[in-house]
């Protein structure tokens, strides 16, 4: 199993009072060190093919023998983690993957990276600040666009949303910033100066779309891929990481495959999960040792790495970083990384990296000898030294244990067994309609698949205006609300409530075969009764009445898994382009919604004076900003000064 190679190495004098472990060989001699010297933050540097993976596997072997310990491996390639899963004998495997194929009986492991999980829920500010830091620092998502506007969106709005709904996820966040109406709930609940700044841009639709464009561009790349959305933007966590860490003896494998996505995307997903695990560690009441092994650690933001390095020991969290070159790290944080590492492992690398790694060694002769050892090491040899409490010890030079996969354990079976145990139900395969009659989730999922086939993703269970909608999606920058009508058909008033819950938004009612006509007739009958009462009411009563806005409603029914739009009582095969055209109720000049608005304007103009709060008028959705501004500028009309100041 092992290769032997003669090398000028130095062995350390054994400390008889401590348990020792074998790290590798120098010539034919074992290199053994006290186990306490491995329970550290470790920094590994070496070019591709030098043996970093073998060393990581050796460290895993050592850590797996620590009672009740947890080991978390972030593997961008999959080969190392597969070998470790195969060799694992005692630890319980929790397998987390970005790959779509890892779904077992409709179950997948997923997380809500915004959730404050566990019995000791964390401060909302910790979550929002971390998300802000991540999106501001990631090259894919920043590219020089970060500034005050994104600071406002990613802190104020995100924090407000999480406070309002503890189950809110990143998909909800995308939905919220896409809807100006939803943001009005923030008035009086955030600092006045912040609200005034936000209100200035919210009031102008085009300006707001401009304002949030870069934020949307940052979120859409991850939320538009179903497998990534389910992994980091689930409604709830499928597994409580905090509880797992408290139980101990867990091998958590996070495979963020670089073959499945770009390097930037790998970095983002990996970092979100790393933050989730780190945050769970902070809140665990039982401090089992947790060892984090990060292969290609340069893909993780230096800020979170520096935080774990500086704070991890007190929580029993130890970090091992493995990279090819030091210049892959952010230079600003590199000194913090080197300063907090307890053990250094340097395979053959550049002279620049060798000098930087050994910069803290004293005296100068020790530093020079260490650099020489690194640069002259035979292939696959590593130079190791520790730095505890500022005391530098002479380095060791050895060849790490070479791992050959001898255990023929079915790795795929172990992975799927883990997903079956820790995953949550998330059906992705449609079943025949007759098997799922009156099934709310099925018809929503069917429509979701229809949209995904057109590169549009449906966010499910989204909070809008304080109400939970079945779905929400963006079409050409416009937000569309989706409601699946199964049980509510027997209680039609709920349909009217939903129309009033989402004023100003286009609204799709999904239903089963032969049901759309019932919904259509009910809404028409309600509108007719409303029309007949208008002339008998004064302006205040009209303005305060709920505004239906039939021109924004689309009633769509599914027939044999094909969608049809009910348009004025007749079915037409639905296409996504219809969203930008006439809906179910084709509006003409004499229809109620138009007549109602004209009646309001006529009554207003006939009065010499009119006093009503602007927000009270706007909340009905009848009068637009331009008309209200015209009234405010006209001396004939008087509004509350507090509204127009």
What this model shows, in words?
This protein is of the alpha/beta class and 645 residues long. The chain folds into 3 domains: 20-108 and 238-422, P-loop containing nucleotide triphosphate hydrolases (Rossmann fold, 3-Layer(aba) Sandwich), CATH 3.40.50.300; 124-226, no CATH class; 430-589, Trna Endonuclease, Chain: A, domain 1. The chain is built from 24 helices and 21 strands. Strands 1, 2, 3, 4, 5, 7, 8, 9, 10, 11, 12 and 13 form a 12-stranded mixed beta sheet that branches. Strands 15-16-17-18-19-20-21 form a 7-stranded mixed beta sheet, sandwiched between helices. A hairpin with a 2-residue loop joins strand 19 (553-559) and strand 20 (562-567). Helix 5 packs antiparallel against helix 8 (205-223), helix 10 crosses helix 11 (263-282) and helix 12 (302-311) packs parallel to helix 13 (331-340). The chain starts with 19 loop residues before the first strand and ends with a helix. The model is unreliable at 1-14, 138-144, 427-438, 543-547, 589-594 and 634-645 (pLDDT under 50).
According to CATH, the fold-level topology of the largest domain is Rossmann fold
Uncertain residue segments: 1-14, 138-144, 427-438, 543-547, 589-594, 634-645
Distance separating the two termini: 81 Å
Reported for the largest beta sheet, the result is: 12 strands, mixed
Number of H/I helices: 24
- The percentage helix is 40-55%
Kindly give the count of domains: 3
| Percent of residues in β-strands | 15-25%
CATH C-level class of the largest domain? Alpha Beta
- Gross CATH architecture of the largest domain: 3-Layer(aba) Sandwich
Radius of gyration, whole Å: 31 Å
DSSP, total strands: 21
- Look at the helices and sheets and give the structural class: alpha/beta
Q: Which geometry do the CA atoms define?
A: elongated
